[in-house]
Specification:
This protein is of the alpha/beta class. The protein is built from eleven helices and 14 strands. The strands form two sheets. Strands 10-9-8-7-11-6-12-14-13 form a nine-stranded mixed beta sheet. The chain has a five-stranded mixed beta sheet with strand order 2-1-3-4-5. The longest helix is centred in the N-terminal third of the chain and has 15 residues. The protein starts with 5 loop residues before the first helix and ends in a 6-residue tail after the last strand. Bound molecules: NADPH dihydro-nicotinamide-adenine-dinucleotide phosphate (NDP) and the ligand Nc1c(N[C@@H]2O[C@H](COP(=O)(O)O)[C@@H](O)[C@H]2O)[nH]c(=O)[nH]c1=O. The site of the ligand Nc1c(N[C@@H]2O[C@H](COP(=O)(O)O)[C@@H](O)[C@H]2O)[nH]c(=O)[nH]c1=O has 17 residues, from helix 7 and helix 8. It comes from Ottowia testudinis. Pfam families: dCMP_cyt_deam_1, RibD_C.
């Protein structure tokens, strides 16, 4: 690596931000590198867990621990330093007090209540501010935080495992396993980055899944959300055996006895019905955002997938495709029938990668990343 080039420092800050991803939610994952006027690394750090130090403060502490002076340094940081007193103190004040003279930031804070305030405060204190390097990667890393701040809903990524002919289950409901162990292990990594894993009662009843993260180094367990209009989630289901995670059941009925039974198992039960007596999915997503959910990872059957897609609530597709043809069976999403091709929403490929014997295809709903 050429550490004399400014882009290299931002790449390092982005790598630090990546390390923060498992621990920072609901806060954004941010990395910060302090560089001396002669181009030496002075200190570095990333966001800690909620309520603890932000990246800039960690980098300043690291500089102090190394015995390096911070006066005259440039801070490379992947998000605008905060100017507000939140759960921690304002980072821009800390940078100014440490004598930092230039801040290179990837992005402005998307929170409409504070956006631009950090830059304004730094500039008012005589600090040179450059915005933009590393913007795309920094945004991608925190796409759920951006979505929640700007749109008031989480980023919704729908994962499905399908055959070449697009089947996700046989007509008798059997689907384990369509994709390889390697693809399923990769799916675990995507579950781990989400704040919520969301499934439907059809999947719970058919598969009796755990829906948890089983990676050896998992820093946290995403909450599990079950879309269950009639409160049919069985008290004996395997999902209750997963420790250290929240379970939230969204329902369309008021059934105090069933509600009590699920609450006894530790679930939060939320009533949120649409006019068909099903769970109102759009309201559910807003509710999840109010509870600081940045990213939702959907692993459901074709019915719930179809409803989410018909209401245009899915932002990203994470599709594992196995080189098999399964014939009859359920598809990825029950979308009903279109009469013209332009009724089918457009997706834009993000990346396509072989995973073991399968393919992993990622696509984003057209126009969805411009918020
Ligand atoms: N290959 C893969 O990636 C996967 C395959 N599967 C397979 O899918 C099959 C299960 O599919 P499916 O039955 O569709 O299960 P889903 O997980 O899609 O659950 C569907 C149920 O969700 C409930 N629901 C509540 N509100 C809504 C709403 N607004 N829209 C739609 N559904 C709502 C309905 O039941 P209610 O009205 O009672 O609430 C509905 O029957 C199984 O065979 C399973 O193995 C499942 C996951 C992934
Ligand atoms: N069949 C199928 C998948 N199915 C999904 O995995 C769930 C089981 O999760 P767990 O109990 O936590 O292992 C199941 O209910 C369904 O959502 N996933 C895949 O990667 N490949 C597959 O072929």
């Amino acid at each position: 690596m050429d550490f004399t080039h400014p882009d290299t420092w931002m790449r390092r800050a982005l790598a630090l931000a990546e390390q923060a991803r498992p621990i920072s939610p609901p806060n954004p994952a941010v990395g910060c590198v302090l560089v001396s006027p002669s181009g030496e690394l002075v200190g570095e750090g990333h966001t800690q867990a909620v309520g603890q130090a932000h990246a800039e403060v960690m980098a300043l502490r690291d500089a102090a621990a190394r015995g390096h002076a911070t006066a005259g340094t440039t801070a490379y940081v992947t998000l605008e330093p905060c100017a507000h007193q939140g759960r921690t103190g304002p980072c821009c004040d800390a940078l100014v007090a440490a004598g930092v003279t230039k801040v290179v930031a990837s992005l402005q804070d998307p929170n409409p209540r504070v956006a631009g305030q950090g830059f304004a405060r730094l500039r008012a204190a005589g600090v040179e501010v450059v915005v933009g390097p590393g913007a795309a990667a920094a945004r991608e890393l925190n796409i759920g935080f951006f979505s929640r701040m700007v749109r008031g809903v989480p980023w919704v990524r729908l994962k499905a495992a399908a055959s070449l002919d697009g089947r996700t289950a046989l007509p008798n409901g059997v689907s384990q396993w369509i994709t390889s162990e390697a693809a399923r292990a990769d799916g675990q990594v995507w579950r781990a980055r989400a704040d919520v894993v969301l499934t439907g009662i059809g999947t719970v009843l058919q598969d009796d899944p755990m829906m948890n993260v089983r990676l050896p180094d998992a820093a946290r367990q995403p909450a599990l959300v079950i879309v269950d209009s009639q409160l049919q989630t069985p008290p004996g289901a395997r999902l209750w055996g997963v420790g250290g995670r929240r379970v939230i059941v969204y329902t369309a009925v008021a059934d105090p006895a069933r509600q009590q039974a699920l609450q006894t198992l530790g679930a939060r039960v939320v009533r949120c019905a649409d006019e068909r007596g099903k769970v109102d999915l759009a309201t559910m997503l807003k509710d999840l955002a109010r509870h600081e959910t940045n990213e939702v990872h959907v692993e459901a059957g074709h019915k719930l997938n179809g409803s989410l897609m018909r209401e245009s609530l899915v932002d990203e597709l994470l599709l594992y495709q196995a080189p098999k043809l399964l014939g009859d069976g359920a598809g990825i999403a029950a979308l009903g029938s279109f009469s013209t091709l332009d009724q089918a929403p457009e997706w834009v490929w993000r990346d396509i990668q072989p995973i073991g014997p399968d393919l992993r295809l990622r696509a984003v709903m057209a126009g969805r990343d411009h918020f």
